[in-house]
């Protein structure tokens, strides 16, 4: 069953509806070729029995639309491969330009995905959505550029094939489920087009379970900056930073608070990498020098922060980073 289906229109408003659907592939609201439109303040409940492969029910589906606002909707889905909000289409011809998904409340029961986008977008925005219940990430895997993923909570975020985008100020909370959760994932783990010019900043990632990862940077990355994030892991978690890429010379990681997590090293990298930028590193939860120990806080020699701090937000409180290999030309070095 379907709720509302709209094809080929402009300046359309869909608001204030209460919709319940039953069955696999059912849609609460579906639009195709609808632009300069608003879908807001609807309450949608979908019920799906889909298991394994195939497609479950969908709360809101957008096909081929620009300047679309999806805001203030309350979406609840049941079924292990259902989706709260989906934008999709032919990647060569579709776009989600200048559009906004914001301030929606999404509950995903039995698995599934809160927000998935598989189209291209310029200056698109996924902002301030409240994903109440979900084991999966907000996922963007089109050719998005100059877009923002800001202030969503508490679901994780996965971005793929993006250019010059910002993932910022998202409060992400992970508990322990039967799956290995990751707070933020940038890039595809394998061949294909991958992000470049991505900034991951100001996010707070908290894990209260075990077996989770904080931020994962995948293969074939372009220039990527990880700055000003707080990652707090449970002692039984996996890695605060998981770096699975050979493009380490294009990655800048600094001014992050990386605390907790004693079961494994805080950072795991497939290749040697300097975890600082411009003589400024990160706080790794240690308040006694050396503040970062190569091959202890990291998985291997060569994975190192040469300028770690000994205080939370040390770069903001006037703390001087500890210089792992002392240079007598540096201020404060031992004689």
Condensed summary:
By secondary structure, the protein is mainly β. It is built from no helices and 34 strands.
Tally the helices: what do you get? 0
Average pLDDT figure: 77
Portion in beta strands? 35-45%
Q: Give the termini distance in whole angstroms.
A: 77 Å
**Gyration radius, in Å:** 21 Å
The number of E-state strands comes to 34
Largest β-sheet summary: 11 strands, parallel
Poorly predicted regions are 90-95, 325-335
Helicity level: under 10%
Output the structural class. Answer: mainly beta
User: What spatial order of strands do you see in the largest sheet?
Assistant: 1-4-7-10-13-17-20-23-26-29-32
Tell me, briefly, the overall form: elongated
Question: Which secondary structure elements does this structure contain, and how are they paired or packed?
Answer:
Blueprint: E1 4-10, E2 13-15, E3 18-22, E4 27-35, E5 37-40, E6 43-47, E7 58-63, E8 68-71, E9 74-78, E10 83-88, E11 100-102, E12 105-109, E13 113-117, E14 121-122, E15 125-127, E16 130-133, E17 138-140, E18 144-145, E19 148-150, E20 157-159, E21 166-168, E22 171-174, E23 182-186, E24 198-201, E25 204-207, E26 213-217, E27 224-227, E28 230-233, E29 241-243, E30 251-254, E31 257-260, E32 267-269, E33 273-274, E34 303-304
Parallel strand pairs: 1-4, 2-5, 3-6, 4-7, 5-8, 6-9, 7-10, 8-11, 9-12, 10-13, 11-15, 12-16, 13-17, 14-18, 15-19, 17-20, 19-21, 20-23, 21-24, 22-25, 23-26, 24-27, 25-28, 26-29, 27-30, 28-31, 29-32, 33-34
Features:
single chain, 335 residues, mainly beta, ten-stranded parallel sheet, 34 strands, 41% strand, elongated, disordered C terminus
């Amino acid at each position: 069953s379907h709720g509302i289906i709209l094809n080929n229109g402009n300046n359309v408003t869909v608001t204030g509806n209460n919709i319940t659907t039953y069955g696999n592939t059912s849609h609460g609201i579906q639009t195709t070729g609808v632009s300069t439109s608003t879908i807001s303040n609807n309450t949608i409940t979908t019920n799906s029995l889909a298991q394994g492969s195939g497609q479950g029910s969908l709360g809101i589906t957008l096909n081929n639309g620009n300047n679309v606002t999806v805001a203030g909707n309350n979406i609840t889905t049941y079924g292990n491969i259902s989706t709260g909000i989906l934008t999709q289409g032919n990647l060569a011809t579709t776009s989600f330009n200048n559009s906004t998904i914001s301030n929606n409340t999404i509950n995903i029961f039995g698995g599934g995905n809160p927000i998935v986008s598989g189209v291209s977008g310029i200056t698109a925005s996924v902002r301030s959505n409240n994903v109440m219940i979900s084991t999966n990430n907000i996922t963007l895997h089109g050719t998005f550029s100059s877009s923002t993923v800001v202030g969503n909570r508490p679901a994780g975020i996965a971005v793929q094939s993006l250019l010059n985008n910002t993932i910022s100020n998202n409060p992400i909370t992970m508990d322990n489920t039967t799956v290995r959760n990751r707070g933020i994932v940038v890039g595809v783990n394998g061949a294909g087009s991958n992000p470049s010019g991505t900034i991951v900043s100001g996010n707070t990632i908290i894990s209260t379970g075990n077996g989770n990862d904080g931020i994962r940077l995948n293969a074939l990355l372009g220039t990527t900056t990880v700055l000003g994030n707080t990652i707090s892991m449970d002692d039984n978690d996996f890695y605060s930073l998981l770096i699975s890429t050979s493009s380490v010379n294009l990655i800048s990681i600094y001014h992050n608070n990386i605390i907790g997590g004693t079961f494994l090293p805080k950072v795991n990298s497939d290749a040697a990498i300097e975890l600082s930028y411009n003589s400024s590193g990160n706080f790794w939860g240690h308040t006694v020098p050396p503040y970062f120990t190569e091959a202890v806080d990291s998985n291997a020699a060569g994975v190192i922060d040469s300028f770690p701090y000994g205080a939370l937000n040390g770069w903001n409180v006037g703390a001087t980073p500890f210089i792992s290999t002392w240079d007598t030309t540096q201020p404060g070095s031992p004689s």
